[in-house]
Amino acid sequence: MNQSKLDKLRSRIDGIRPVKVLFVCLGNICRSPAGEGVLRSIVEENGADNDWVIDSAGTYGGHAGQLPDQRMRIHARRRGYELTHRARRFSPSDFDDFDIIVPMDSSNERNLRDMARTTEDIEKIIPMISFVGMATRYDHVPDPYYEGSEGFELVLDLLEDGCRNMFRQLAPSEH
Q1: Closest CA to 140 of 156, 128, 150, 154
Q2: pLDDT, tens digit (0-9, with 9 covering 90-100), for 5-39
Q3: Which residue among the candidates 30, 31, 73, 99 is catalytic per the annotation?
Q4: Which residue of the set 25, 69, 94, 99 is catalytic?
Q5: The model's pTM
Q6: Whether 31 is catalytic
Q7: Structural domains of the chain sorted by starting position, each given as residue range(s) with its CATH number in brackets
Q8: Cα separations (Å) of 7 from 31, 83, 97, 109?
Q9: Which helix (H) or strand (E) holds 154?
Q10: What pLDDT, in 10s, does the model give residues 131-163?
Q11: Is 25 a catalytic residue?
């Protein structure tokens, strides 16, 4: 994420605790619940549970109530993450309930921008790839749904890197 955007985000959430983060993908069964699980694990490892609220949603509601995709759960479990979230559809009221809305790709970002009601809502939208620091050829977190094992592993690699950076950049200084 460029420094000015990061500074703007930090100043907007400065002093706000807990920081409320919502990960968003299409169906809320692969990328966004994995992002939720990865960040939740990092937060717990750092004893910062009281400083964060983490959730996920999808822009498409067809999977509402379902557990994450079994393949994502298997790959995540191998890395120590338990994904137990039940899919839900993003609602415009989520802009009121969360400080940062984190879409996984440009299509999700466009959908969120279309649902935004105010400039403040739009300012809450920060693409996940903005937090990824590792060298990557991707400008988004790709959807692994129609991919093999490598696709799920890539998503987890990107999310682990991005969530570590998100935590470092936004956590209170005592963590």
Answers
A1: 128
A2: 777 777 777 777 899 999 999 999 999 999 999 99
A3: 31
A4: 25
A5: 0.94
A6: yes
A7: 3-170 (3.40.50.2300)
A8: 26, 31, 22, 21
A9: helix 149-170
A10: 998 767 899 999 999 999 999 999 999 999 999
A11: yes
